[in-house]
Design goal:
214 residues, mainly beta, five-stranded mixed barrel, globular
Length: 214
Amino acid sequence: MLLMKIVSAMRASVVAIAIVCSSCGCTSNTPQASPSASSEKIAFHADYPNYPSLEAALSTADAVVAGTLLGSREDLLRPDVPTDIDSPLANPQAGTTADRNDPELTLPVTIATIKVTQTMKGAVKVGTTIDVTQYGGKKNGTLYQELDTVLFHNTSAKEFVLLLRNQGDRFNLINPTQGAWARTGNTLAGLTNGTASPYDVHTIDEVTKAASKL
């Protein structure tokens, strides 16, 4: 599970949010700001699993693909509300009877539509169009930004190499800092000029070779 907490808010009262994410969904507490707060942007940080090597990251991924960004859209992730976990630390919804369809409990996400051009691991076929979820987006006029996430549509790249976890009808990156490269031909780089290339990998051949050894 991933415990996510807002660590800063801009032009808003201090707010706190705890979101427990698992492979099957997400459980969320709604941010509670004071009535006088005028929230326009909320930045939060998520604790993701860290993978010490490219090999470890590739082993964790359900799919490793290269693809072209076709577009993106915003959505609201509806939470799973566990009923069998009583610990407030593990389950911020403990003791509640919240409905997962309650719009107040939703988390803004951005969904990128990717056309797969190469598969290095997994069952995703070349030519398939997949949806990849990234945390962050707008809700009720407020922009939510996960501090480690660079949304694909906010980069200059159109081609990417992605390490993905299968979430059923969508995919997630294994984590936002180690799960994606911007691609130009055979060359790979971090998603922006200010971010390092994960695992100091700079060519798609390096990823293909490592994936073939799994």
